[in-house]
Amino acid sequence: MSESTRAPTLDRSPLKAVKGMNDILPPASARWAWLEARVRDLMRRYAYQEVRTPIVEPTPLFVRGLGEVTDIVEKEMYSFVDSLNGDALSLRPEATAGVVRAAIEHALLHDGGKRLFYLGPMFRHERPQRGRYRQFHQVGVEALGFAGPDVDAEVILMARALWQDLGLADLRLEINSLGQPDERRAHRAALVAHFEAHRELLDADALRRLHSNPLRILDTKNPAMQPLVEAAPKLIDYLGEASLAHLDAVRAVLDAVGQPYRINPRLVRGMDYYNLTVFEWVTDRLGAQGTVCGGGRYDGLVEMVGGKPAPAVGWALGVERVLDLLQHDGVEVPAERPDVYAIVPDAGALAPATRVAETLRAAGVAVQLHAGGGSMKSQFRRADASGARWALIFGADELARGEVAVKPLRDATAAQTTRALADAAAWALTLRDA
Ligand code: ATP
Ligand code: MG
User: Fold this and answer.
1) Of the ligands numbered here, which is closest to the C-alpha atom of 294?
2) Distance in Å, CA 9 to ligand 2 centroid
3) Could you say which of 26, 140, 151, 368 has the lowest number of CB atoms within 10 Å?
4) What element of type H or E holds 316?
5) Within this chain, do residues 157 and 52 fall inside the same structural domain, yes or no?
6) Ligand 1: which residue has its CA nearest to atom 6?
7) In angstroms, what is the span from residue 222 Cα to ligand 2's centroid?
């Protein structure tokens, strides 16, 4: 290393977050925590268990798992070489491949199927815009080892239950079947013939995929190609009896619980690993990024990642898109605020105030203890701004009598009272349950 690179830097210009990667700060972070709590409760009620897999995985996991000719693998992955050992690594662009790798590596399926969920950041090098970021967050479920179609319906209904819990109305369900590989082969030949006949209308991506992965062309976001995609042969017309029966069985459950859906024969998903049931939950209320949740069956993936073949189905939802929708629909999320703001008029009050605050906190009351001194007036201003319901005032006169003043901050009709310091554990409960 040269002398100059070792010298301490004098550059003090402000550093910014990486483009497309967002800080999640208060008060917005409270909305995230609230959503995550709803998600965890949903998973508990459906008996899905959490898995946490690494953010960084070997690059071949995604190349093999998602397919080489996919948007993600072709142009969206943050891939790099570990400079210490030369390993090819990637930030995870999605979590299904990692969950499946972990399930195989730890023989999770040795005693039957597993219902799993995850929650966390994903990374894709896309053009940042509303609802599309380079670090974004997904909640996902993976039911491994179940051939369906009952479990296909189960995971779809879990998403529905989440929309209900969150107070989100009007998310539409679209479903399709991608059949099995042999059915896709027959369809693929017809698809290639269709696109070949209209070669002049294909964009560069489509031309490249024409022979490598023509199904992917149906997933194009290029509006100019929509008419051509609309006119393309439909995979659903190439499905055999078993695939159609699987789809019908999923539909029967949805019908039985009154969940409306639209069969969308154009629905293909962004990864190669899907087969049979695929679905998306969509909305018109988010502009161009209208898919909130997508998933389907991926019976081939476990084997592709090196495990004994096992069926699987799952979905992933975009947390930012769900939060955007909650905001759009004006869904109120409880704000994070302390129950109590403790006012510390002078240094002599700190010890008793701290003792009471600790007692209250141990009883479950949220207490913000004033720090940094200042006048009573400025402390009351802080107490108000905190949103607390009560101020505890540790004034010298009250303390001399072994008491503290309790002033209601949100209810103008309620009177200020005093409480005995020695009984804090008892009245903490009345504050907590008020
Ligand atoms: P899109 O068609 O919008 O690119 P996708 O098919 O690539 O989505 P999936 O890989 O199925 O998305 O991921 C599931 C969900 O994750 C999406 O429905 C969306 O809500 C969310 N999502 C995907 N990519 C992003 C991103 N770059 N930023 C924010 N959310 C995203
Ligand atoms: Mg995408």
Assistant:
1) 1
2) 39
3) 26
4) strand 312-318
5) yes
6) 270
7) 13
Q: Are strands 390-393 and 340-343 parallel, antiparallel or unpaired?
A: parallel
Pocket of ligand 1 (CB under 6 A): 94, 124, 126, 131-133, 136, 138, 270, 289, 291-294, 316-318, 320-321
pLDDT digits (tens, 9 = 90+) for 5-62: 566 778 899 999 999 999 999 999 999 999 999 999 999 999 999 999 999 999 999 9
Domain that holds residue 53: 28-179+239-328
Name the residue of 138, 163, 278 whose CB sits within 8 Å of the most ligand 1 atoms, as the mutation to test its pocket: 138
> Smallest Cα–Cα separation from 95: which of 123, 68, 70?
123
Task: Read off the tokens for 344.
Answer: 């510390």
Number of domains forming the structure of the chain: 2
Whether residue 379 is contained in a domain is answered as yes
- What is the best residue among 291, 298, 301, 324 to mutate for testing ligand 1's pocket, by most ligand atoms within 8 Å of CB? 291
Residue 74 neighbours by CB under 8 Å, 6+ apart: 68
Burial class from Cβ neighbours inside 10 Å (0-12, 13-18, 19+) for residue 30 reads middle
Q: What is the pLDDT of residues 361-384, one digit of tens each?
A: 999 999 999 999 999 999 999 999
pTM for this one?
0.91
pLDDT (tens digit per residue) in 267-298: 988 777 889 999 999 999 888 889 999 999 99
In a domain, 205, yes or no: no
Mean of the pLDDT values across residues 222-238? 92
User: Are both 127 and 250 inside the same structural domain?
Assistant: yes
Q: Within a domain: residue 46?
A: yes
Q: Please give the structure tokens belonging to residue 228.
A: 């051509």
Query: By alpha-carbon position, which residue is closest to atom 9 of ligand 1?
Result: 294
Residue 6 pLDDT: 63
Going from the Cα of 432 to the center of ligand 1, the distance in angstroms, rounded, reads: 41
Query: Which ligand places an atom closest to the C-alpha of 289?
Result: 1
Distance of CA 75 to the CA centre of its chain: 22
